[in-house]
Amino acid sequence: MDPDSTASPPEAEPAAMLTLRSTGRPAWVYGLFAALSLYFFLAAIKVMGGGLKAIGENSDVIDRVMGSADNPLVALFGAMLVTAIVQSSSFTTALIITMTGFGQMPVETAIFAVMGANIGTSVTNAIVSLGQLRIRKQFRRAFTAAIVHDFFNWLTVLVLLPIEWISGEMRGDGRGVLMRFSEWAATFFSSTELEKPFNPIKWVVSPVVDLVGGIAGLFGGSPVMQGTLVAVVGLALLFASLIFLVKNLKGALLRRLEGMFRRVFFRNDAIAYTVGCIATVFVQSSSVTTSLIVPLAGAGAVKLRRVYAYTLGANLGTTMTGVIVATANPEPAAVAVAIAHVTFNLVGTAIWYPLKAVPLSLARGYGRLAARSKRYAILFLLVMFIVVPVVGIVVSELIF
Hints:
By secondary structure, this protein is mainly α. The chain is built from 18 helices and no strands. It has one domain. α3 packs across α4. It starts with 26 loop residues before the first helix and ends with a helix.
C-alpha cells in the first residue's frame, strides 16, 4: 500500500445534507473560507518573496555572490543561496541570463548557476510545510511533499554536474555536453522574441502586496529594513492563512475536493505534470505553484506520486521566464543559457521519473524522521539552504 495514500472517501451525502457535523455550518461556508484563505496564502507568498527580494537587491549579497561566479561550484552554490534569499528561481535565472548576455558571467559556468537556482527555489515549499507542524500526520505528508522537490533537484545536479564539468574539461573550453547542445539549439531561436504572459496571480493579490509594502514604507528606514518588515509580515500571513486553509478543507468539503482533484487535476501522472507546467507558465513562479500543492498534500487530498509529477511539470514551466528574458535580448550566449535551463529539467525528468522510487523513498524517509522530531525539519532548512551553499562557496574559492 502506498504510504501516502488515504482511505477511500465515503459515499457522497445529498446536497441538502452537505454540512460539517461539528458546527452544523453548510459546506459552502467552509468553501468560502477556504477560498479566502487560499487568496491570502497566495498573497503571503508574494509578500514574503517581495520582501526577501528587496533585501537581496538592496544589499551587496547578490553582487558579491553572483558577481564572482566564474567557478562552476561557486556558480552553483551562489545561485542556490541567492535563490533561497529572494525565493524566486525566475529572478535568479533572469539575472544569470542577463549577466551572461552582457558578458558578466562566463557562459561555461552559467549552466551551473542555473542548477543552483533550481535547488534554491524549493525552499518556499519547505517553509510552507511548517505551517502544519501541530498535527504530526498532516505535517509528515506536507513536509514529504515539499522536500520531494529538493531531492529531485539534488539528484539531477549530482548526475548532470559531473557530466557537464568533466566533458567541458575534456574539451578544453569548459563547455560541456549540455551547454554545447544548448548553444547549437540557440542558433534556431536567437532571432525570435517572445512576450511575457499575463500573470493573473500577481494581479489578483497585488492589493494585499501593495498594502503591506505601503504600511512598511510608513515606518521609514532603509530599503533593507523595509524589506525585512515586509518579509516578516508575509511569513506570519502565510502561516495564518495556511492554518485556516487546512482547517476549512477538512471534513465533507475535503472529501468532495479530494474526489475532484483525483478525477480531474491529478487523475494520472501525465495530467498532473501538464497541470503543473501550464499553471507555472501562467503564474511565472514555481514557488507559488509547488507551494500551493503542499497544504493539499498535507490534508490528504493529493497523493505523493502525483505531487511528484506535478512538481516536475512546474520545474519545466518555470523555465519559460528565462526563455522570454533571453529572446527579448537575443544574444546567442543568453539564449543558450535559457535553453540549458530547459534541457536540464527535461533531462532530469527523463532520468528521475522512471527512477522515481529513489526521490520518493528519500522524501518519505526524511518526512517520517521530521514528523517524529520537528527539529529535523528546521535542520533540513538551515543545512540545505544556508550551511551547504555558504560552506560550498567558501571551500570552492579556497580549493579552486
